[in-house]
Amino acid sequence: MASYGFLGLGIMGKAMASNLIRAGFDVTVWNRSADKCAPLVALGARQAATPREVAASCDITFAILSDPAAAREVCFGSDGVLAGIGEGRGYVDMSTVDDQTAAEIASAISAKGGRFLEAPVSGTKKPAEDGTLIILASGDQSLYDEAGSAFDKLGKKRLYLGAVGQGARMKLVVNMIMGSMLSALGEGLALGLKGGLDGAQILDVLDAGAMACPMFKGKGPMLLAENYSTSFPLKHMQKDLRLALALGEELGQSLHTSSSANEVFKRALIAGYGDEDIAAVYKVIKP
Amino acid sequence: MASYGFLGLGIMGKAMASNLIRAGFDVTVWNRSADKCAPLVALGARQAATPREVAASCDITFAILSDPAAAREVCFGSDGVLAGIGEGRGYVDMSTVDDQTAAEIASAISAKGGRFLEAPVSGTKKPAEDGTLIILASGDQSLYDEAGSAFDKLGKKRLYLGAVGQGARMKLVVNMIMGSMLSALGEGLALGLKGGLDGAQILDVLDAGAMACPMFKGKGPMLLAENYSTSFPLKHMQKDLRLALALGEELGQSLHTSSSANEVFKRALIAGYGDEDIAAVYKVIKP
Amino acid sequence: MASYGFLGLGIMGKAMASNLIRAGFDVTVWNRSADKCAPLVALGARQAATPREVAASCDITFAILSDPAAAREVCFGSDGVLAGIGEGRGYVDMSTVDDQTAAEIASAISAKGGRFLEAPVSGTKKPAEDGTLIILASGDQSLYDEAGSAFDKLGKKRLYLGAVGQGARMKLVVNMIMGSMLSALGEGLALGLKGGLDGAQILDVLDAGAMACPMFKGKGPMLLAENYSTSFPLKHMQKDLRLALALGEELGQSLHTSSSANEVFKRALIAGYGDEDIAAVYKVIKP
Amino acid sequence: MASYGFLGLGIMGKAMASNLIRAGFDVTVWNRSADKCAPLVALGARQAATPREVAASCDITFAILSDPAAAREVCFGSDGVLAGIGEGRGYVDMSTVDDQTAAEIASAISAKGGRFLEAPVSGTKKPAEDGTLIILASGDQSLYDEAGSAFDKLGKKRLYLGAVGQGARMKLVVNMIMGSMLSALGEGLALGLKGGLDGAQILDVLDAGAMACPMFKGKGPMLLAENYSTSFPLKHMQKDLRLALALGEELGQSLHTSSSANEVFKRALIAGYGDEDIAAVYKVIKP
């Protein structure tokens, strides 16, 4: 039976590793603060002392770290993945990182004979727990195939998107659409309310028709209640819009609607709402 | 048993009147070209010679006409609804008309002692046939309640939105959101394709996540196939965006994202795509 | 010698009528509050009791009223211009009015055998006093020619633009460009200041180069000083932007940059800055 | 008497060096293609074989190179400025380069004991010949003062803007405003023409009023004539807009109007007009 490593046991990683263990996979875990390993060991995981040890002993090592700096440290650090990985072993980084970071990790792993997959996910805490993430993989296709049975415990949907970098691009495209949709929803709600319509009825009509979607169902009532408790921080959405617009500059794509939405999100960020939920964009739309 | 009239047997009206008759209602129909009455008479409807006759003999008369001019003619014409309607009888105009037209019809009907409801619908041919329209009613609330059992055969959802005019406003708000969403989808697809992503995979990811909606499922493949066969003409969407922006001017609501989407649709209209489907907005986004 | 009437002695009208009198023209004045006539009578003007009397006795009657309602009253009122005007006499309305008002006045004057010119001006108090207005005339061309020597005392520039309505269109086009320029100036200043540049130096560089213009020279220091004392009320600029965008809808012209500027001005209006100078748009740009 | 070096004798450099020589300065020139030195030697310049030789023998060395790569090569190349510059000598790079390049050159020159000034210019061929450039200097202030008498032969206006990088920022701010103004002019002209106004009259009205500026006087007739012969390539303007927007992202400044103008310029670039004059943005506005 294949052996799997899992690096990073934050909110996402803990839920994901648990799903693998519960499904009967042979899993070795590591986390910077070692105490976070205990609940997973209790479920049946082995525990390793360093990323190096995990990468050296497992067929496929997954990682989900909080940011590019952490992703780099876990790979390039003195007892990092790179020091342990050997010929043919696989490393799947599910963190959301920038192009540059993904490219450098990919090339370093390859140079050591390892195989690499960049696999950011769409979805937050709940889908991680439920095993219903969407996995956007790019890089080594043989590794994508071999990791398939594990991916299927982590997500409800997985796609192989081509060379390293394409996973990140897909995420930008999808989040850019989401940002414009949320800005449009906010404008529609604010306009309707000023026009004497009932907010709940507007959401009701939307939910009964062609635009019915989980996002409107989730964020719509938050806008009406002016409840902006964070599940997706606004600053991250604005960053994704910024990066998507930069991609549009690079590739030569006009983005009139998305650039307007970006300016609206930017105003929300400047107004100090960056750590609130993306729904807080409504605060600069409504006045 | 209450008696119902139905005026206007175009694509929408024919399907809607059929649903009422099949459900066992007592229905009297009229259409400008009388030959269109035959299939409904075959289903069990009575046929009347004029709108006046229908309005004078039925408890509640529904109408769905092609445009404001037709709606006015059927109401104010020499043998029109106004000439027939008596104390307490109800008139439900389901046509999509402008504020001014709705207000004039409402006030004329009231002056004759009748009751009036403006009830534009969201949905096109298929939902009309399936009885799954969304009915956005405003005006006389007692009439809304009495027409309820008939509405429930015509649509899957009905809302009472207040004074005459609010139904039309709801439709503008919802269509404004739709226009921005479609422009955003087009920008996302075009960007992704230029970035080497697969269009079907982009739609796949959207469909698996928080933005999954019937509109993307319907229009997404049309964009990829550059198939713009009309179900909702682009010129009507641009008109709704224009009217929604005018409402924003009147009510004092900033609409950065929607006004950008309107400019994109306007360019599509100027380019000559007004009679194609709203999906044809993609033609000016993609280049 | 030809005789001239002048109706409306507000800030603009007083200055303009004075210039005509000082230039030696035979001028008869009228104002709703008769006491405003005194200073002009002191300069040599005759005074009349009603617009009717002025129109009946003068070859060419000029008017500059505060808004469309006042322009209508002075023309259509019981002792109005229309009651007095006779075959061949001229009426030059220099008020800024909407298309509809101008068209109705034009047609009523013509029906009585009079000749009509719509002649809104570009410029405010100072140019009115200095006789350096820009006169945008449209309507009866023979009247334009005959009024020429008077126009030349009122303005430094006059243009004949065609049929009634074209003067108003010219003003919308020019003010639309002005609104976008001011929004752009505000964005540039705000960006430069956040980037550590000196505001006065930014204005200095602009003033030394290809964008040097009286508007930047006038409004630039106001923005830096956050001095918004009104010479052109912001609400009027937003109205002109709105009307220009409506013209763009009617004529089929995409206006991406101008519609963005309009949304920025609209936010300033919503924020309550409508009665301050157009420079106050900076308040919603700067934060 | 102080001695001056001049590196780079392209269109701009040749005109600028000539102005220094004609004004009686002691000038040593160098150019990659040595034959371009002859006309300047004929005017009285000395000629050097390498940038190193120039920097080692002159008190202040000016350079104006075509792009960042050339600016780097002239500084860091084996016989470059860095190899020659000694304690206290001055290097003034008047090329338009990115932040990173300017910062690296500045720091390398300082490390060798030299003094550095970044001094991009506003203005093209004609102002270079006429000595009417605008010089946007930042870096070593003592060098700015010492180079003053030379700057005054090159330009009509010079500003000291602070630390290295501020000169480039000023240029971005000014060009961002220019881009929005040109897009606004295009929209106004196109709208007016569709509305039956005469293009030359529109320009005439603009030129008589508060928006009168050399740019409208220069570009306006080009738009009407659809003459896009290049003096400022459109691709450079779009690049400046892109960089200004990136600065807005970095500093937290909303730029609704400028980002719309950028999208319009981007469409012109995508349509293939990058090498035509910035006036060619009109081609995507007009249809």
Query: Total domains of chain A, how many?
Result: 2
Largest sheet of chain A: 9 strands, mixed
The CATH class assignment of the largest domain in chain A is Alpha Beta
Mean pLDDT across all residues of chain A, rounded? 95
Helix count, DSSP H or I runs of 4 or more residues of chain A: 15
Largest interface: A-B, 64 and 64 residues
Q: Which regions of chain A are unreliable across 5 or more consecutive residues at pLDDT < 50?
A: none
**Number of DSSP strand runs of chain A:** 9
InterPro entries (chains A, B, C, D): 3-OH-isobutyrate_DH-rel_CS, 6-PGluconate_DH-like_C_sf, 6PGD_dom2, 6PGDH_NADP-bd, HIBADH-like_NADP-bd, HIBADH-related, HIBADH-related_NP60_sf, NAD(P)-bd_dom_sf
Domain 6-phosphogluconate dehydrogenase NADP-binding (chains A, B, C, D): 4-162
EC number (chains A, B, C, D): 1.1.-.-
Keywords (chains A, B, C, D): NAD, Oxidoreductase
